[in-house]
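Record type: monomer structure entry
Structure origin: computed from sequence
Chain ID: A
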Amino acid sequence: MAGRFAGKVIVVTGGGSGIGRATALRFVDEGAAVVVADYNEAGARETVKLGGERGGADRLLAVRADVAQEADNAAMVGSALQRFGRLDFAYLNAGVGGAFGPIADTTAEEWDYTFSVLARGVFLGIKHCSLAMRKNPDGGAIVNTASIAGLVGGAGSHVYSAAKAAVVSLTSSVATELAPHRIRLNAVAPGTISTPLLHRGQPERIAPMLSRQPWPEHGAPEHIAGVVAFLCSDDARFITGETVVVDGGLIAQGVTLWGSGADNILLRRSGVNRGSTGEASIVRQPTTR
């Protein structure tokens, strides 16, 4: 298969839907072999099916992975090496909406769950993927999904924002460690992107948020996929330790996606959003406002 990533292998976590799926399919189109990892195995298999329809059937593998578990990360990387013989790129994208609501109503268990997926999952992914990439003479590239919520206030719940800030910090600090091994580590910080994680099957419910960005085109998973492909390409070979904002100008104008102060809609309910994992989310009335 011709393409700038022909002969290369990438692992995509959270590849069963949304941004992860779009990125997996982008790399299939550009000739790479792709390991599609997701907690929701049915979603991963659907991505593989779609990739096969685009001519990449022999270059795709679906694996179930809970990114918060070290054994699953090791097995995910091992599957890539066993099936395709190497690992060149990783897109550590798996995510959930996580805990939301007033901080007084946030349980320690909901905080831990959010950080286990969004921050611990990235840490473990970097650890195991970089170990495999050290075997390559030309190193590799890892891209993490951060968020504008980790850069400014007003773009997410307090727990989600804190976890994504951790991803931004981890990206810059570990990049210096991996650079001598020719492994580049960057992150992408999406703004409002229309995905199942955000709209939960009701795209119309996020229309007000999409209308708040300056850029007239709504954010789509493919926009992020294009930036991830760039960061993995030789065109980005001198870029490491960076978080690239892809938000249609939201940060430039000031972000209050969910409202501000007492009008913040994230404070009207509390609970935990488990995204597209297939597990039920929890929503309850807050006891404080």
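Annotation 1: The longest strand covers residues 183-190.
Annotation 2: Strands lie at 9-13, 33-38, 60-64, 89-92, 98-100, 140-145, 183-190, 243-246, 270-273, 282-284.
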